[in-house]
Specification:
The protein has helices at 10-18, 33-61. The longest helix is centred in the middle third of the chain and has 29 residues, at 33-61. The chain is elongated. Helices cover 48% and strands 0% of the residues. The protein is built from two helices and no strands. It is mainly alpha-helical. Residues 60-79 are annotated as: Disordered. The chain crosses the membrane at residues 36-56. Residues 63-79 have a biased composition (Polar residues). Keywords: Membrane, Transmembrane, Transmembrane helix.
């Protein structure tokens, strides 16, 4: 049912690492001005979102301030 595979000779693996193709890949296309502007706007949007979340989240994370008035439920009022 299960067949054992033949081991691959190590020389074959070593030769495969040395193999170099003589075919050069085509040169990469340069990004257009619109693509560069789009990527820049996306990056700035992400950075602005992170900075905004830090600015709005810092007051909530500060432990030095205590609430001015503690909330109590109406059930605790002695009627």
């Amino acid at each position: 049912m299960f067949r054992r595979r033949e081991p691959v000779p190590f020389a074959f693996v070593a030769e495969a690492d040395k193999f170099r193709s003589n075919v050069t890949p085509p040169p990469r296309e340069r990004a257009t001005a619109g693509q560069i502007m789009g990527r820049t706007l996306i990056g700035l949007t992400v950075v602005a979102g992170l900075v905004g979340s830090l600015l709005f989240g810092m007051p909530a994370m500060s432990a030095g301030q205590s609430p001015a008035k503690t909330q109590q439920s109406e059930a605790s009022d002695g009627r």
